[in-house]
Structure formats: C-alpha cells, structure tokens
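Regression report. Comparing outputs from two consecutive submissions.

Submission 1:
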Amino acid sequence: MVVKSLKMTTLADNLVLRAGLHGQWGLSYLLEIVDGRGDDRKVVFDTGNDREPLLHNIKKLEVTLGDVDAVVLSHGHGDHTVATVEVVEAAGGCPVYAHPHCFLPRYYEDRHGKRTRGGVPEGQNVEDIEAAGGELVISDEAMEVVPGLWTTGQVPRVTGFEEVSPPTDGGRRIVVVDGEEREDKILCDQALWTDVEGVGPWLITGCAHSGPVNTALHVMELGGFTGLHGLIGGTHLVGRDDAYIDKTIEELRRLGLRFLSPCHCTGFKAMARLYDAFPDSFAVNYCGRVFEAGKEPRRRLV
C-alpha cells in the first residue's frame, strides 16, 4: 500500500540551525503520514541521546505526541533510545517496534580491558516501556507499523565493502546473547521505508550500521523497487577513509536518488563529499527541519 503523503520533522540531531532549539549527538524524527485510506498517522522514529534537549525541542516545536500511533527504535544504542518511556507516556501508551537484540546487555571494552556499560540507557528497557503503557513488538522481520510504513527488519549485509566501523582505540564492542558474550555486529540495526503516491519510495535510517547501501538494497527487494526517491538519516560514514566514502557514493548513485539528507553520524567529511556528489538532491538536516515528500525543500543548504 502506498501512502498519500509523508512529512518528517527532525526532533533531535547533531546540528542546530534554528534559534531556540538544542542539538545533541542523537537522532529522533516525527513522521506524519496520510495512509492509503486517507487516515492520519504519526510515528516517532528513535528518541535521541539527551532527554531534556529532546523534550525541550518537542515543546518548542509545538509537537503533539498524544496521538502517536507507534514508536520505532532503529537499534539498541543510547543515542537513539534515551526517551522512549517519555514518548510512550505522552502518547498514552502505544506499540514500540524493535529488533530482538535491541535491549540486550552491551559493553565497550577498551584495549586495557576496562569495561563500560553501553546499549539502551537505564530506565528505558522493556519493563520500563511496558510500565509506561508501551506494547513491545519484537521481530527481526520487516513489519508494517502503520498502513504503508514498514520496518526493514534485520538488514542483510551483501555489498562486501560495508562493515561495522571498528572502535578507533583498539577496544571492542560486546553484546550478550543467551548469556554468551559475542562481538557486537549491531544486528539490531533497522530502518523505516514507505512508498509515497506520485513521488516514490523513501528510506529513513537511524545510524545505518548495516551500511546505507545494504539498507537501500534491502528496501528495494522488499518493495520491489528499481530505485529510491529519497534517503534521510544517519549513514555512519563518520571516520571512514576516502576510499570507503567513494565506494558508498558510487553505489548510492545507482539508486536514482532525487532527495538525500544524511545527518547525525555521517560526519563532516562525508557530508561534504555527499553534497559534492549529489548537489541537486542534497539537503542539510538539523533540529526543527521539516521535509515533505514531493515538495522542494526551501533553501537546500540551510
């Protein structure tokens, strides 16, 4: 089912180019959709890294969460999951979609063996969400969140060059699965996608730890698409070398993108390279920015 319209408001991002809002190393979107039956739908995708700045932005933007239909978590990292309970409470209770690995215990171990806790912050786990009125919907398969808006589920990693970026200081990421410690390949990474009537398919990513190209290819397979109209969200190109970024750009060119708005974990170098590669489709994202599918963003650079 296609949707009739798609509007995205950035509630949290690294950048702030609008007075009165607060930035953070985190991401959160409000998606407003008119589905194929003409019904209004609202979905919050991720809930940021810093609770108070996010809640401040929601209030400042006069965003209403009381009619939110669902929350979707892109993966189990703290910069995307800090205020899930607060959003669910504001919605009066709603489904929360996540991958089975999203809420697993996670640690970072530095090269000296010192561990720090990672993953979903304290107070935002399954029992906390359920106590707030949330209904956890846990699956590694693609799921329809509201009519016409889907999760990707777990993303197959098929490109051969996209891999989870290693820690820069020689440490390691650990996830505990069924009581066993494993290297954390962030398998819980997922995204959202939809097909907008008269416009085309859109992909909305959290961090794209699976790789933006892998994620796009998966969406094209799920939806039977030959390309994508729009891609918005994190790409996790921060810290990548030039060859890796160039290969990503080469593969993204094949998608036929008419709209590209990378943000959050993309990094300045990759952002600049992507703008240079896609000057006619690139739009800078930032807290408070609103994009509507099929409408040209006002002043693409800012």
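Submission 2:
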Amino acid sequence: MASQESPETVEATVRRVPRYGVFMGIGVVVGIVIAGILTLIGSYEPSDAVNVVYPPGQVFGFLLLWTAPIGLALGGVVGLIFERASRRHDRIVRVEHETIVTND
C-alpha cells in the first residue's frame, strides 16, 4: 500500500463564535421569569362587564405563549450582535494542510 503526502501551507481565519443556543436558552428563561412576574402582578377579580376570572396558572400559560418565543428571538438577536462585534478580533493564521492519499 503506497501513500502520498502533499502538504501545503494555506491561510485560515480563526475567530470566536458565540454559542447561539446558550443565548436563546437564556432568552427563554428570561421570558419565563417575565411571565411569572406578570402573573404575580395581575388582578384576579371579576370585572363588571364579564363575570369570568382566569386562574393564575392559566394566565401564566397564556403569557408563556408570548414571552418564551419573544425571549427566544431576542436571545438569538443578541447572539448575532455579539457575533458581529467579535468579527474585528479575527486572526489570520498560516496552517499546514496535509492530504494523504492511499492507493489500494
């Protein structure tokens, strides 16, 4: 079995990229906290026009339908902003690219 090595030197860009999942997860957690705060400060007394009172658990669920996706999206946007800001710290390095071809 003969192998051929062909090393070549190329330039590569090294940059740090934020983990978008972490930012989006933090956004969801912030959305859950905001939904909890809005649930706690809500009024649960019957109104004059409609005699319907929603329980706090149901209000929390309704609020989660809005705050969690908004937090997810805002976390992704913050991750993109950090990624754009980190581009000025890119480094260009020389690396040796080696390709090994084996003939059977």
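Expected: both submissions complete independently.
Actual: both completed, but the second showed a warning that disappeared on reload.
Relevant detail on submission 2: The chain has one domain: 2-45+52-103.
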